[in-house]
Amino acid sequence: MVSKRKLRVCVATCNRADYSKLAPIMFGLKAHPESFELEVMVLGSHLIDDYGNTFRMIEQDDFDVSSKLHTIVRGEDEAAMVESVGLALVKLPDVLQRLRPDILVVHGDRFDALALATAAALMNIRILHLEGGEVSGTIDDSIRHAISKLSHYHACCTRSAEQHLIAMCEDHSRILLAGCPSYDKLLSPTKNNHLDTIHTWLGDMVQENQYIVALQHPVTTDIQGSIKIYGLMLDALISFNKKTLILFPNIDAGSKGMVRVMRMKGIEQHPNFRAMKHIPFEQFIQLVAHAGCMIGNSSCGVREAGAYGTPVINLGSRQTGRETGENVLHVRDADTHNKIYHALELQFGKRYPCSKIYGDGNAVPRILKFLRSIKLDEPLQKSFCFPPVKEAFSQDIDHILETQCALAVDLGGTNLRVAIVSMRGKIMRKYCKPNPKTYESRIQLILSMSQDAIQDAVRLNCRILGVGIGGGIVHHHELVHGSTFCAGELGHIMVSLDGPECMCGSRGCVEAYASGMALQREAKRLHDEDLLITEGMELKKVEAVSAVHLISAAQQGNAKAQAVLKTASTALGVAVVNILHMTNPSLVILSGVLASYYQSPVQDIISQRALASSQGIKVVTSDLEEPALLGAASMVLDYTTRRSC
């Protein structure tokens, strides 16, 4: 038997921040020499004296650096950033040709990383991008998303980031919800004495929770504004009169101006301040963990600090859109000294519950398993999962004669669907798009899809007689509207006082338990934890995990999958019982791809929990192809027929 060759993985690190995320992966790769061959490339601000020559900590961690690239053009302005990208693109081809990696691991949203991804993509080298799909302020968003589009594989940190990547048409099978690698370090026990670390960097008299950590970077789309906020922050810290550890800003455009402000205010000589260019990550994170407060706009404040419940004051727009825990107080319009000072009064000395939004401490094992699963014989050209587009129109003789039709709308929890339905129940054309979260967006999408359908109806020679809305309650052939035209939100019947979060923003809705999207979410969770696939099951590489796989696993005896489906079936059954008690129908008809699976469990719940007057009601499945759309259309067509008779 021929053994699979080692995967040659090149990890490229550009600065002290990305190394804190990449180092755990590098240690993991190094610990498995039978599977991986690690190459380390160092570039960017790692090699600049003013920023601490942080490449030394990589060497101190006993990594062999394969290549050091001086890629930074000094100037700390917009032009210097562009020139730095250009310089990196000039130097990278020689290095990549020499190293010839199978996979290049790139992190985040820095301009250095954009150069790496561009060079690798053009040289047909597969790219694994860490922390794609996240949202923040400034030009970083655009750079991060550009790197994601160039990358072949993705290891993201949060469920929202995963959904953003899917919305960006990235292949779901090439997205790993791993968590943040730095959390593997944060959530592991440490042998170091944190008081020793505090005394080393702040002095022997300083105790935990009695100092501030400050770290503010430039906002490249508003350099002057960020310099102003930096000055106001320093003024507030001077007035607040607490020991403060302040780190120099990163190398982005505007950093020179911020350092100038720091020196004009005498921060480096001030008795309350310790100004540092670099602190090793393990010690820095200990200082953050035991600080009375962290202030600035570093991603560390909205990510890593939450793991310890450290209170954080986030200034300005640099982290706008980031998912944060309750420990973060945002001062987005930080335009006065008093506003920042008041935030310090509110936050300093507090402790918050620890947050694990960005990871559970098991990111590295997941990423290593993901890397092992990559098949190098697969086509290098990445494909995008675009939403369906309109079919090309082909005129047919049947369309010459005008057809009377209805426009049917199905407001599902997951998708919004519109169809042109003929008098004989034939679906002439169907449209489907993901359902937006907000009411205004849904209305706008309904109008847009209906306009598209009406235009197609003209080409199909169909005369639209009216519009029918699905997902409602019909009583005596009349649609029940409700006082605000919102009656019939059956998917949002609450079956639990708590429970999973629903797309409506509430918790405990039946849709959050039993919908196709809810089951797909649980299937993906089990698959990510290697708890879904059982003996006899097979999941193709290009196949996205879905509710079908969850049902298949349950049918083959997977206890975890069975538990998920039992909870979903119970939730749906309880919701149906509530409907029976309110409306007392003669029959329950389930439709959709999950109807056949839910039929028997829902019948059992009715028998067990419904009032005696409703226990005999039967549950059946619909044989119609599109029952919701046809039902909506029938309201229009039936009404029109009765009027014309």
From TrEMBL:
Record organism: Gadus morhua (Atlantic cod)
The organism's place on the tree of life at top rank: Eukaryota
InterPro entries, per database record: ATPase_NBD (IPR043129), ROK (IPR000600), ROK_cs (IPR049874), UDP-GlcNAc_Epase (IPR020004), UDP_GlcNAc_Epimerase_2_dom (IPR003331)
GO BP annotations, alphabetical order: UDP-N-acetylglucosamine metabolic process
NCBIfam families (alphabetical): NeuC_NnaA
Limits of the UDP-N-acetylglucosamine 2-epimerase domain: 34-371
Lineage: Eukaryota, Metazoa, Chordata, Craniata, Vertebrata
PANTHER family in UniProt: BIFUNCTIONAL UDP-N-ACETYLGLUCOSAMINE 2-EPIMERASE_N-ACETYLMANNOSAMINE KINASE, ROK (REPRESSOR, ORF, KINASE) FAMILY
Protein name: UDP-N-acetylglucosamine 2-epimerase domain-containing protein
Gene3D superfamilies: 3.30.420.40, Glycogen Phosphorylase B (3.40.50.2000)
